[in-house]
Structures are given as structure tokens and as C-alpha cells.
Amino acid sequence: MRLARVLAGASVLAVTSASALRAIDFKDFSNRCSPGAVRSCASLQLWTSLITSGPNAGGTAVTMWVRNLQGSLAWDNTGGSVLARIGIVTPPIGNAFGLQVTTSGTVGVHNSPLSQWTLRNGGSIGGMIEVTAGVSNNGNGGIIGCATPAPGILQPQRWFQTCDPSGWVVITFTTDNAWSANDAQVAFLSNQFQNPTGSGAGLECYTGPNPATIQHCDAVTPEPVTMILLGSGLASMGGFGLVRRRKGTDVISD
What we know:
- This protein has one domain (about 1-250).
- The protein is about 10% helix and about 35% strand.
- The strands form 2 sheets. Strands 4, 6, 7, 8, 9, 10, 12, 13 and 14 form a 9-stranded mixed sheet that branches.
- Mean pLDDT is about 80; it is low at about 225-254.
- It contains 2 helices and 16 strands.
- The longest helix has 12 residues, at about 1-15.
- The chain has helices at about 1-15, 225-235, and strands at about 20-35, 40-50, 60-70, 80-90, 95-105, 110, 120, 130, 145, 160, 170-175, 185-190, 205, 215, 220, 250.
- By secondary structure, the protein is mainly beta.
């Protein structure tokens, strides 16, 4: 299963030109949940590859696969959350540019969410790189899980939905310095759209050693049925030529 995912990630990184890339590094941040009584859960897979030639030589090609796990993990009890901000908080990362947001597998798409995503250098989550659907546009976009916003709910109005175990939002960009996924830690922030200003608002956590301002993301073990569904979804995605890419777009950094 891990091999199938690595091959899929390799095919996404190929957008930079295989001849210009060095070996791919990979780190798994699956099934991470914010702490507390109200918990939001997400999975993130991170790939990096050093660029060895061309105008971006010396930089790093970055790919993130992201899922909101609301509705597929028992620990996510928000009743409906929107994953709005994803940050890479270590190691030190240079300027980032060339953001693309696509999807793989079965992903719901509502009301053109691609336009909502921006890439922020020095983002507020960890102060490094942040990919966000919730800063420049007042939280209008993001990634939801299995629950769909009810009529009258203010957040979000535009979203991807990753309820199917095969579905991932795929985020790619380039940085102008060299670094490895092996050394990375990540953070995410989500809001409970059923109660966007209550106890489920602004659930934020960090996968590395716990800094004073951010709580640690707990790693949880999925139930066996969830693991079987996830494995069957990955098997359908495996291989360099089988990754589906839909509706890719360049998004201007802010």
C-alpha cells in the first residue's frame, strides 16, 4: 500500500520534469486529530524532491495529499468541519511559488473551490509555508469530510469533499531552497461549520514537538473497516500512469 502511494506521488511530482529531479523523500502524517473534547481529524502525505536543473535548480518540488477525515474516523466528533489551512512548520523553508490544487480519486467539488486557495510565505501556522482557503477570502473555501453544510450555514460556501476513501486534494508548489520531507512537521486548522464561532471553531494542531502556542496533533489508529476501505482506495490509484488529475489551476500567492 505504501509503495502504491509513493508511486502515485512520484507521478504528481513529474510535473516539474523527471530529468530535473533527484530521489523523492516521503513522510506520512495519516490520521492526526486535534486534542480536546471537540476534535477535528485529517490525513496529510508529503513528498519532496530536489530540483537539479533548469531555472529552479537548487529548489524543492513539493507535493501534499490532504484529506478531511470527518465522518470516517470515530475521533472526529465535530459533526461537520472544514479544513481551511495547512502549514509546513519545519524545517526552514525559503520562498514558495507556483501553487497548483488538483484532486485524485472521488472528490466532491462544490461551487468552484479552486479560486479560494492561496500560498502564503510566512503563514501564521508555524511561520513558514501555509496553503490556505481561509485567510484572504474570509474562510469561504476549504476541504470538508462526510457532512455537508446545511442550508443557512455561513461556512464554507465553496468546498472540496473527501468522504470517499479514495479521494484526496493534491497540492503542489516549488520552494527556492533545498529541504526534505523527512525533516518536516506540519500543522492544520479547521472549523466546525455547524458552529463556526463556538467550541469547534479554530481547531489547530501541530505534528512536531509541542510549541507553546500550538497543541500537538494526536495520531490515532483507524478502525479495521476504515483501513480496508482506505487500502482498496489506494490500490485503485497505484502506478505512475493511473493518477487522475482534474481541474488543475495555478493560484497566485498572496
